[in-house]
Amino acid sequence: MDAYLGTIYIIPYNFAMYGSQFCLGQTLQVSQFTALYSLIGTIYGGSGNQNFQLPDLKGQVPVGVGATPGVNFQLGTKHGANFQTLSVLNLPDHTHPAQFAPTTANQPVTIPAVQNTLDVKVDVDVYGGGGDTTIPTAAKNMLSGGSTGTTKIYNSPQTSNLVKLSNVNTTVTGSAGSPATTVNVSTVTGGTVAVGPGVRYGNPQAPVSVLQPSLALNFIIAVEGIYPQRP
To answer: Which residues form the Phage tail collar domain (predicted)?
Structure first.
């Protein structure tokens, strides 16, 4: 192959011509390809004293050497990937509507008993007859009608001809008691949250292809040929 040593060609067929090899990153012995080694050295890999590697263009697109905004393309370095997994850092700030669908069920709730603390005042019965003592005793302890002379208001207990005292107030103090009771209360026991639109909630992230439209061809490098003269 009459070409400058180390020149890379693109060919549309599936074999490398005589004096060339495919650019597949394979390792060559320095002792067998001394001239080519003197040109590319270990830029593309190798030990440097016994072997070196050819450029590896499998699935790669050549790019010019030099610095561009954000990337410095140095000779022999690889950049980029066929797929990229996006994260929240790749997305602008945004919101998604969410809707909660509750699951409900009856839950028994027991209300404990409350003790009665009522204190009740009752009516006092009065007998209309005249009293005969001024000091109540076990036998004479009922309020009775008054009598002339010295007031005597107590009389022996009676069961008939009783009248109610007027303007006597009956009061109830305290709190009424109540027995323990169990009621069913409808409560939320779970549910689902739907987030939309277009959110793969709970699913793993899928890498996004960033591969540009391409056509697969073979790259070959001249391992024999005219030694290029340096300027």
So the answer is: 6-62
Contact by Cβ (8 Å): 53, 46: yes
Element (H, E) at 160: none
**Total domains in the fold of the chain:** 2
Answer whether residue 130 is part of any domain.
Answer: yes
Residue 163: Cβ within 10 Å count: 10
Its domain, for residue 62, covers: 8-85+210-222
pLDDT tens per residue across span 39-96: 999 999 999 889 999 999 999 999 999 999 989 999 999 998 888 888 878 888 888 8
Distance from C-alpha of 92 to C-alpha of 71, rounded to nearest angstrom: 23
To the question of pTM greater than 0.70 for the whole model, the response is: no
One domain, residues 147 and 78: no
113-137: per-residue pLDDT in tens?
888 887 766 666 777 666 766 667 7
Q: Based on the domain organization, do 165 and 214 belong to the same domain?
A: no
